[in-house]
Write a structure and sequence with these properties.
Blueprint: H1 15-26, H2 35-45, E1 51-54, E2 60-64, E3 71-77, E4 82-88, E5 93-99, E6 111-116, E7 119-126, E8 147-149, H3 155-160, E9 168-171, E10 176-178, E11 182-185, H4 188-206, E12 214-220, H5 228-237, E13 241-249, H6 258-261, E14 271-274, H7 280-292, E15 298-301, H8 309-314, E16 321-329, E17 337-340, H9 341-357
Parallel strand pairs: 3-12, 3-13, 13-16, 14-15
Antiparallel strand pairs: 1-2, 2-12, 4-5, 4-9, 5-8, 6-7, 6-9, 7-8, 10-11, 11-17, 14-16
Helix pairs in contact: 1-4, 4-9, 7-9
């Protein structure tokens, strides 16, 4: 049984914020169908913002100081990987297509929810028993051979449940705590980011911090299929600067390659990225904030692109000063994504410290 998440000593989290985390993470928010999760997120941040708006595809933006001409964004993405119903056999089994970077190898024996107009339909990923498989030529799971079993005799029974081609499918899994150190569950990539930026809004409000600029707290849709939500909302907001938070790979577990992926660890603080999309002077400001506030951090090089919404903001509107603060995560795109609780707190603290370092009309081109 999953252990109840409890408030630890000296944590910046409240019982209410931890309850929000649990509710928000347990709720499905598949790419292209993020509405219910966005409602939960907006309901939580509403007391801590002055205004909000929602764009055509469902990105939600909470705003503090909406009249200010200088605009700073903090952003995470709201969507999770999932599957689509692609083909229903005459015998009532369902084959799928990815919605985002879903991992076919973890699918067998997983329980899932199929989202239909009639409500949730339960199903399982079936797989032949070990007893009947030929070890000499055993098949591995692939997108061509994994399938869903709905307990139906034929395709008409499947359709009677409201399941049709195009229905979206998410894993059935709930947030838990591991050894009082880690949050574990599906879709921490990147609804944990949505939680962190919401906590930034709460802590700014509760500490009565007055920022000299407009703060746009952005929970974007459709990151998993091409940074689409961030691309659209960046052009709507036209910010002067953007701090993005997402997850990156912890590389300390078996089968990880530090030469390929860097030497990054859960529990050693936020990860700051170096790369063309990261504006160097904004990055320096964040590093100064970390050192001033004694927040431990790590570094990674990301080469041509960050692979996150940072890229969408950086290259929008003739160029927006953008930087990425990442949260180390184990087992990405599985149902047991794992992050260290102290890292979550320190990402929040670092975002707040960085915001306090930004001046009104800050020109990052000339920051010394």
């Amino acid at each position: 049984m999953a252990k109840t998440i409890s408030k630890k000593d000296k944590s910046i989290f409240t019982n209410n914020s931890l309850e929000f985390l649990k509710t928000y993470l347990n709720n499905p928010s598949p790419t292209g169908f993020e509405t219910e999760g966005q409602k939960i997120w907006l309901n939580y941040i509403t007391p801590y913002i002055d205004d909000y708006f929602v764009d055509t595809y469902g990105t939600v933006v909470g705003v503090i100081n909406p009249q200010a001409p200088y605009k700073v964004v903090i952003e995470a993405h709201a969507d999770e990987i999932s599957w689509f119903v692609h083909y229903i056999t005459k015998d009532g089994f369902v084959y799928l297509r990815r919605n985002g970077g879903s991992d076919h190898q973890i699918a067998p024996s997983k329980r899932v929810n199929i989202h239909t107009d009639k409500g949730i339909v339960k199903a399982i990923f079936g797989w032949p028993a070990i007893h009947v498989r030929d070890a000499a030529k055993e098949e591995s799971p692939t997108q061509k051979n994994i399938f869903l079993d709905l307990g139906c005799k034929n395709e008409k029974e499947v359709e009677a449940l409201g399941v049709h081609v195009g229905c979206v499918i998410t894993y059935e899994d709930e947030l838990m705590e591991l050894n009082n150190r880690y949050f574990v569950g599906r879709a921490l990539d990147n609804r944990i980011g949505g939680f962190m930026i919401a906590e930034v809004a709460r802590l700014l409000k509760e500490s009565k911090t007055k920022l000299p600029f407009g703060l746009y707290i952005v929970n974007s849709v459709q990151e998993e299929v091409g940074l689409n939500g961030a691309t659209m909302i960046a052009h709507k907001i036209k910010p002067n600067a953007a701090i993005i938070t997402d997850v990156c790979h912890d590389t300390q577990t078996p089968m990880m390659n530090k030469v390929a992926s860097g030497d990054l660890s859960c529990g050693k603080g936020p990860v700051l990225s170096y790369g063309p999309a990261v504006q160097n002077n904004l990055l320096k400001l964040i590093i100064e904030a970390a050192k001033k506030n004694k927040i431990e951090f790590q570094r990674q090089a990301v080469s041509r692109s960050t692979g996150t919404d940072t890229d969408a903001f950086a290259y929008s509107n003739e160029g927006v000063a953008s930087a990425l603060i990442s949260l180390p995560l184990r087992y990405m795109h599985t149902t047991v994504e794992t992050v260290h609780k102290e890292d979550v707190e320190n990402v929040i603290k670092l975002i707040i410290a960085s915001l306090k370092n930004i001046k009104n009309n800050h020109d990052f081109r000339y920051l010394k």
